[in-house]
Amino acid sequence: SQVNEEISVKHLPSTEPDPHVVRVGWSLDSCSTQLGEEPFSYGYGGTGKKSTNCKFENYGETFAENDVIACLVDFECGEEVEMSFMKNGKWLGVAYRVRKELLGGRALFPHVLVKNCAIEFNFGQREDTYFSVPPGFTFIQHLPVAERVRGTLGPKSKAECEILMMVGLPAAGKTTWAVKHAAANPSKKYNILGTNAIMDKMRVMGLRRQRNYAGRWDVLIQQATQCLNRLIQIAARKKRNYILDQVWWQGCP
Q: Average pLDDT for consecutive 10-residue bins of the chain (253 residues)?
């Protein structure tokens, strides 16, 4: 993948530690969108950190605009699977070694997490590669179809989509139920929409904002609410399954 552009940011405070983030790597199909922040999700970010299960460690080098990162996975290492990365053609060493028995025959999928950046991918569709492919490796697109595993397909039509709306007072257990229900039905790949879910994704180095946010908390809540409103607009155009987890109330006269 190539980082094409770091988009101008005007909606974040100057104290934001990392206004531009790109994290690339591999995850199981069952993982969430938060690359490197849960088990079986393995990422390498532009801050020069690798992460899995919310554990961040120094790795490789930092990268930014115009850099090209290659994500390599080697399944021919005996009882282990090795994942490594390259920056502009330079190999950065093995980042992860995972025992095959832990993966249980499940496929690893390319995964990217982006914040205020534009990126471009090459799975083998480009005639000219950014940099030469290391010996023994091949692009995913060049693998025989029989050696590929298809990811989970979403609903074919809006009529097949499912939307659950949580009802209840604050602290009644709505979020807990939503998270458990989504985990119990992984094939539906529920997208949970709510300020709590948004805040949980606004982590810094794997830590929730509540633990390391120095600014005004009410301002952060307002930003999360604005994000939720935008996500609801996007959700109306996407064929997915949703759980709407938000407190809805109106003051009485």
A: 66 67 94 93 96 95 92 95 96 97 95 91 90 92 92 91 89 90 92 88 66 65 87 94 79 43
Hey, where are the domains in the chain? 2-147, 158-244
Could you please state the CATH topology (level 3) that the domain comprising 2-147 is classified under. Jelly Rolls (2.60.120)
- How many C-beta atoms surround the C-beta of residue 36 within 10 A? 26
For the whole model, what pTM was predicted? 0.83
